[in-house]
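Service request form, structural biology core

Requester: graduate student, group of Dr. S.
Request type: structure prediction, single chain
Budget code: on file
Notes: please return the result as structure tokens.

Sequence provided:
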Amino acid sequence: MASNSLVRRRLEAQGFCNLDDATLNEVGPWLRWSPAFCTLFMVAGVALKSPAVLWALAATAFLGTLLPFHPFDLLYNYGARYLTGTRPLPHQGPQRRFACGIATVWLLATGWAFHVGALLTGYLLGVPLILVAAIVSITHFCIPSLIYNTWFKVRPSASPQARA
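Core staff response, request fulfilled:
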């Protein structure tokens, strides 16, 4: 699956570069793990109009901007991967940390809107946030990573294994 050139390009756009085909085939599907958990918590936070859920997720996303991994990756690396028999997830690059930074601000704003009773604003912020997270969870297409690559003129290129 992950050896597919489209998936490889999308993962490299997120900063997962220089991974051989075997590694991408093994962990490629699991690189959706953290975005999927984030999406689920976003859905819960928006559906419940819960600033607490959204702010807790913002704190988690903020850690994802500072660390070379997302905190939810730890659940996979120290738990789920032993059940699946797969290797740990690679560290995330600056693109995905940038995406975590955008999510942090967006989650804080969405939570604040619900906190002050601006429900329409909360939904107008929350629904697109959920959609952006769901897209990367399903397709590996990360809009914030593309913004990062455009702003900083990063052109991820396929590894030698992918070009062979």
